[in-house]
Automatic annotation (TrEMBL):
InterPro entries: Beta-prop_ATRN-MKLN-like, CUB_dom, EGF, Kelch-typ_b-propeller, LE_dom, LMN_ATRN_NET-like_EGF, LZTR1/Attractin, PSI. Keywords: Disulfide bond, EGF-like domain, Glycoprotein, Kelch repeat, Laminin EGF-like domain, Membrane, Repeat, Signal, Transmembrane, Transmembrane helix. Residues 1235-1244 have a biased composition (Acidic residues). The lineage of its organism: Eukaryota, Filasterea, Capsaspora. SMART domains: CUB, EGF, EGF_Lam, PSI. Residues 855-900, 951-998 form the Laminin EGF-like domain. The chain crosses the membrane at residues 1113-1135. Residues 49-88, 237-270 form the EGF-like domain. The keyword RNA-binding does not apply. Residues 1228-1306 are annotated as: Disordered. Disulfide bonds join 78-87, 241-251, 260-269. It comes from the Eukaryota. This is CUB domain-containing protein. One of its GO terms (cellular component) is membrane.
Length: 1306
């Protein structure tokens, strides 16, 4: 991750070849050389896209050795988790080294966008060994946006986390900040947890003889910058007298700085502090010998004219015990070494107070993370420390508390102990050397830590802010303001402040009733990542009002800046001094808050509007209120006396006093829910008590709900609550008491290993991997506000990292977070792994954190010049002599020994065995077991040779009986003693490794349960030209993440090498559906095979679906109508056949009837026809009607014939007339004639001719009849006169011949 700076250079031969330059001017824009730490150069042109790299399959330097070049050479293909144009972003948790030489420049960044969660990136900037050129590493943080107190960018002045830490950057950085590393290496680590992710960081670095190469302005000489005119500073970064001192000062040429006029400050004297403001008394630099290292979470007291500072974290984030002294008069520093007595150990988050010529310090946390209860006294006169042991009472282990002196008592409020937040109040009496601990009454804060406490003249200690957990897993800054009434030992809740904060300082401005709050930690999850407060706000204790933007604090953002963990003292002249603090790095500056220059105000009102100023009526001057000799008596009128309307009720802090008090003629009322007194007009929203008789019924202490108690001891100490079930996710464990003997788990701070820390109470504790301490989750931010923890582990004990001490080799040691290798024998590579925080007994020469020593032979060999082990001894082997030889066991790492493995059969070789028991784990000759006495799985022992032979299972089982060799547990689908047969329902040949397949039918779903096996399927499509669908579904009983592998192929011919087409091959799947197109396979000539294997117990459903093609409507309707018509035709034919059959049947029946009738005696008759032939009367056989009587329509007629009556032979012949209804159709008439004449043997054609003639005559006769009927009136058929046809005559019966036998038969 190096930054390459592109600088233009002259092309070779530019002046010598002007014509050539003109020829290529259209395409060549610039000839540039890349000044890079790697020495490589690239020359991009305007006409061709720049090639980032040369195509290769290996990691390339152009891709930061984290990726390979694409085929086109236009981009890098980065390996995970790296990204960026040249794979310059990302980290994999391993240390990344960047060698530096003089002039090397680069950058480090988390990349564009938001950084990832759970990152642990380590970057080492390494100068050449020994640093012969005297180079320094300059680091500039140009941008930073991290989650406050959870995500950090750490910078170490050295190659390991054991090196001095110079910065623990978190939150937002609003201006660039520079760090100069003078060691041979610098280590930068970036850690992010699983929570919020923000935009990250950008850091540039360079190696040069002087810091930042003198900002490219001056030149370096003997490691110091010589700056040009107009510039100054350690590396020429500051402008001399900027803005010409803004007209508010003069430029001091010798010091190259502005000397500001009174009332102005700043580098350019642009900050007007005539009405009060901040000014810097010392620069934040270590180049001046009289400026000590910075401090944070320290303490400071004023014992005039000196300010004494003790403890805290130093600039390198180590806990210090040094006592500093700052002389106010000449602004000089000195270190104090006590002459007699023992001294307190280093500590932070303690409290300090001054009584006379002595400074007291109490409590705090030492370098081992232990909470202290010690009270130490430093005697300024005797320059000695002494431990104060109270004669009565016990001081608590405590940190983050405040100690306020009121009279002869020191009152300790709030704080945090190993058992949680401190709820009680301690009073130490100087005169009796005793300690009293009690629980105050009133509305007490539930828990406060890192708050401020200010005592005013009314006898109240005003307690503001602090860290207070608002759920089980987190704490946030508080804006609550409380008043603790010293004499009554009671609490009251006042109006909340404008900004939640903790680790701030608060001071009562001298001579006023104004409490000013400076700095603090202000981050909350609902706000932007602003960690450090830079604004100042005030509270008027007399008016009970807040002012979020008070006057008199000019230059707060520019000079004081955002910080927390600083210390503040009040000087006798009314000024305030603020020391150190933390802003991502430990500050070492001294900031003064000067009061207004009161003498500049000649108007009484203008005078009194400035804090600290008052009008002296006797001298008519504006004076500093705290300096009383200038205006004796009571002539000073503070500004607060006339500028606010005070509710006098607020000063009554007991119920009985309140209800008997009046303010401005209005009775006061007691608010029992907040334990405060208010006027009747201001008590509408509180539980009001109005008379003294009701005060006795009011609870002295406001009860706290069980659900709001987040400490076990705090919960169980309440008689109504008890600590109950485990919690996680912020759910409280404190609930209504149901047991008489509730028990608390061990506090997090008492747990000393990761497993116990994370498992004692799920989610309640976090394990700090670097400091190896256990911290309560809800207090993590407050207790690690300056990055003491560096990184933490949450969850259960299963997630705990391996302890450093458990790692036996240097390489495994350095892979552990915060682990380092202490070399014991550099020549052979032995040593021990230890945590960097506990490596104080390892010398710097033997300490390895970023890389292992050159020789790593685990104590069994020396090394060559190149670091290779020469000859591994002591039965060891391997590249680093790290393992035992075959047949030996033990731990060869780090000087361990190896012993011979135990075996039963001496002709068997044991390649490896258990490192503890010596039991063989890898035998020769296919044997297994602790003594190599049995055959390994897949083999059985021959009865004759006692050799282990492979099981003969045709490749379908991996185990067999160790004696008989009979196969056991055949694969799914196989059976038999050798697994050489296919199971019922399967097809195939199982011999010699052949396969058995389960034949599948189309459109059928099959369910199987397979346990660590493989099953094969075969399917043959049933339709050609139809797509196929294959589906595999894991059923609900299957484990959540089974390892399932499938193969699917189509076989288009007999050769599996050329005719097999794979659709899936070694594909790890879950559930899926695969469509197979008929265009890809000829379904009529393809067989599909599928196999599934798994290492788990799975239930699955498999199917091949071959759905018919979509419906063709035209084809459908054509087929439908063709079938319908064919059906109709068939029905018609059947109907006709039936009709014909029925007609023939009917005719047959009639014929039979006629035949039966013809057998009757009168079955035959004779018709007579009388015609004239040549004038003679003859009898013809032709049937001629005697008369025709046609109907009107001419279609039918009634014919009259002569009929011979049947009689016995010999009887007289008788003739009668008979009539018949006939049709006038010619054919019917002809048919009637033919029927009558057929027996006479006449010619049918002649008969037909005569019939046609007869029909014509009849039709003519019908026409005459119609014509006549049309002219005449209609008559009935009975009256109609029908003339006889032509040729017909009347027949007399006597003229008939006698009947003969022939006639009768006819």
């Amino acid at each position: 991750m190096q930054m390459r700076r592109w600088t233009p250079t002259l092309c070779p031969g530019r002046m010598a070849l002007p014509l050539l330059l003109l020829a290529v001017l259209g395409s060549l824009v610039a000839c540039v050389g890349a000044q890079s730490s790697t020495g490589s150069s690239l020359t991009p042109t305007a006409t061709v896209a720049p090639r980032f790299c040369e195509p290769t399959t290996n990691m390339t330097a152009q891709c930061s050795n984290r990726g390979s070049c694409s085929a086109s050479g236009a981009a890098c293909v980065c390996s995970a988790p790296y990204f960026g144009t040249r794979c310059e972003y990302g980290c994999d948790g391993n240390l990344q080294r960047y060698p530096l030489v003089n002039g090397t420049r680069g950058f480090l960044s988390d990349g564009p966008g938001l950084y990832s969660a759970n990152l642990n990136c380590q970057f080492e900037l390494q100068l050449p060994a020994g640093n012969p050129d005297g180079l320094v590493i300059s680091i500039r943080v140009t941008q930073m946006d991290l989650e406050c107190s959870w995500d950090y960018l750490f910078i170490f002045d050295g190659p390991s986390v054991r090196s001095p830490m110079v910065a623990a950057l978190t939150g937002q950085l609003f201006a660039t900040h520079d760090f100069v590393i003078r060691s041979e290496a610098a280590l930068l680590t970036f850690y992010s947890d699983y929570g919020y992710s923000l935009s990250g960081y950008n850091v540039s670095y360079q190696a040069s003889s002087c810091p930042f190469a003198c900002s490219d302005r001056g030149y370096c000489e003997a490691g110091r910058c010589s700056c040009p005119a107009g510039w100054t500073g350690e590396y020429c970064e500051l402008e001399v007298c900027p803005n010409d001192c803004s007209g508010s000062g003069t430029c001091f040429a010798a010091a190259r700085t502005c000397v500001c006029f009174p009332g102005y400050t700043g580098r350019d004297c642009s900050v007007d502090i005539s009405a009060g403001g901040f000014s810097s008394l010392a620069t934040n630099t270590t180049s001046l010998a009289n400026v000590p290292n910075g401090r944070v979470f320290h303490s400071a007291v004023l014992i005039s004219p000196m300010v004494y500072i003790f403890g805290g974290f130093s600039t390198d984030f180590t806990v210090t015990a040094r006592l500093l002294r700052f002389r106010v008069t000449d602004q000089s520093w000195s270190f104090i070494t006590p002459v007699t007595g023992s001294a307190p150990s280093g500590r932070y988050s303690h409290s300090a107070f001054a009584v006379g010529n002595a400074m007291y310090i109490y409590g705090g946390i030492d370098a081992t993370k232990a909470y202290l209860s010690e009270l130490w006294r430093y005697d300024v006169t005797g320059n000695s420390w002494s431990l104060v042991v109270p004669t009565s009472g016990t001081l608590q282990q405590i940190s983050g508390h405040t100690t306020t002196v009121s009279g002869l008592k020191a009152i300790v409020l709030g704080g945090y102990s190993p058992f949680g937040y401190v709820q009680t109040v301690q009073e130490y009496s100087f005169d009796t050397n005793t300690v009293a601990t009690f629980t105050p009454t009133g509305f007490a804060p539930i828990r406060i830590f890192g708050h401020s406490a200010v005592l005013d003249g009314s006898g109240a200690i005003f307690v503001y802010g602090g860290s207070s957990p608002d759920n089980m897993l987190g704490a946030s800054a508080s804006a609550d303001l409380y008043a603790y009434w010293v004499n009554d030992r009671s609490w009251s809740l006042l109006t909340a402040g404008p900004t939640p904060s903790y680790f701030h300082t608060a001071i009562l401005l001298p001579g006023t009733t104004t409490m000013a709050v400076f700095g603090g930690y202000v981050y909350s999850y609902q706000s932007p990542p602003v960690c450090f407060e830079s604004d100042t706000f005030t509270y008027d204790t007399a008016c009970a009002t807040w002012n979020a933007q008070p006057s008199g604090f000019a230059g707060g953002s520019a000079i004081f800046g955002g910080r927390f963990g600083h210390a503040t003292v009040t000087l006798n002249n009314g000024a305030l001094l603020m020391f150190g603090g933390y802003r991502g790095w430990v500050l070492s500056d001294v900031v003064m808050l000067s009061p207004a220059i009161c003498a500049n105000f000649s108007d009484p009102n203008a005078c009194q509007e400035n804090s600290g100023c008052g009008w002296c009526a006797s001298t008519l001057q504006c004076v500093v209120v705290s300096v009383t000799p200038f205006c004796p008596g009571t002539s000073v009128r503070p500004a607060t006396a006339t500028t606010c309307a005070v509710d006098g009720c607020i000063f009554a802090h007991s119920c009985t006093t309140c209800v008997s008090t009046s303010s401005s003629g209005v009775r006061c009322r007691w608010c029992s829910d907040t334990a405060t007194c208010r006027s009747a007009s201001a008590t509408s929203s509180c539980a009001m008590v109005s008379d003294a008789s009701s005060c006795s019924a009011v609870a002295r202490t406001t009860p706290v709900p069980c659900a709001s108690r987040y400490e076990c001891s705090e919960c169980n100490n309440d008689a109504t609550c008890m600590w109950s079930l485990p919690y996680y996710g912020g759910v409280t464990k404190c609930s209504a008491r149901t047991s008489s003997n509730p028990v608390c788990p061990l506090p997090c701070s008492s747990l000393t290993n990761c497993g116990d820390c994370l498992d004692v109470d799920a989610g309640a504790c976090l394990w700090c991997t670097s400091s190896r301490t256990c911290v309560a989750s809800k207090d993590y931010v407050a207790l690690n506000a300056v990055g003491q923890c560096q990184q933490y582990q949450s969850g259960s004990g299963l997630y705990c990292p391996v302890d450093c001490e458990s790692r036996q080799s240097c390489s495994s040691c350095l892979a552990g977070s915060g682990c380092g290798w202490c070399g014991l024998d550099v020549a052979t590579g032995t040593g021990r792994c230890t945590s960097a925080t506990s490596a104080s007994n390892c010398s710097a020469q033997a300490w390895y954190f970023s890389q292992c020593p050159a020789c790593e032979c685990n104590g069994h060999s020396t090394c060559s010049a190149s670091g290779d082990c020469l000859a591994c001894a002591n039965r060891t082997g391997g590249t680093h002599c790290e393992s035992c030889l075959a047949g030996y066991f033990g731990n060869a790492q780090n000087g361990g020994s190896c012993s011979q493995c135990t075996m039963q059969f001496h002709n068997i070789t044991c390649y490896s065995c258990d490192s503890t028991t010596g039991a063989c784990t890898n035998c020769s000759d296919y044997r297994s077991g602790p003594t190599c006495s049995s055959c390994m799985p897949g083999y059985y022992e021959s009865f004759y040779t006692k050799q282990c032979l492979p099981c003969n299972c045709n490749g379908h089982s991996s185990s067999c009986d160790t004696v008989s060799g009979q196969c056991q547990s055949c694969d799914y689908g196989y059976m038999g003693s050798t697994c050489g047969e296919c199971r019922n329902g399967f097809v195939g040949n199982a011999r010699n490794g052949g396969l058995c397949f389960f034949p599948m039918s189309s459109n059928t779903k099959y369910q199987f349960t397979v346990v660590f096996q493989t099953i094969y399927f075969v399917y043959e499509p049933i339709e050609d030209g139809v797509d196929l669908s294959f589906s595999l579904t894991l059923l609900p009983l299957t484990p959540a993440l089974p390892d399932v592998t499938v193969d699917l192929w189509g076989q288009t011919g007999p050769d599996p090498n050329t005719d097999r087409i794979y659709l899936l091959r070694n594909r790890r799947v879950n559930s899926f559906i695969l469509s197979i197109s008929d265009r890809q396979f000829d379904m009529s000539n393809t067989v599909f095979y599928f196999h599934i294997s798994t290492n788990a117990n799975i239930n699955f459903e498999v199917s091949f679906m071959q759905d018919p093609p979509p419906l063709n409507l035209i084809h459908f309707f054509l087929t439908f109508f063709a079938c319908f018509c064919a059906l109709l035709l068939a029905a018609f034919i059947v109907w006709r056949i039936r009709v014909r059959f029925e007609h023939n049947q009917f005719v047959r029946e009639i014929t039979l009837a006629f035949e039966q009738m013809s057998t009757r005696p009168s079955a035959s008759i004779t018709l007579w026809d009388f015609c004239q032939a040549d004038g003679a009367r003859v009898v013809h056989t032709k049937t001629v009607p005697l008369a025709i009587e046609p109907f009107r329509d001419g279609k039918a007629a009634v014919m009259t014939f002569a009929l011979e009556v049947p009689a016995k032979p010999g009887a007289p012949r008788q003739v009668c007339l008979a009539s018949a209804l006939i049709s006038t159709s010619e054919d019917l008439v002809a048919s009637a004639q033919m029927d009558g004449e057929e027996d006479d043997g006449e010619d049918p054609e002649q008969v037909k001719s005569e019939s046609r003639k007869l029909g014509a005559r009849v039709r003519r006769r019908f026409q005459r009849f119609r014509h006549r009927d049309d002219r005449a009136a209609p008559t009935t058929e009975a009256s109609r006169d029908v003339p006889a046809p032509a040729g017909a005559e009347s027949i007399e019966m006597s003229d008939l011949p006698p009947r003969t036998a022939r006639d009768t038969s006819e």
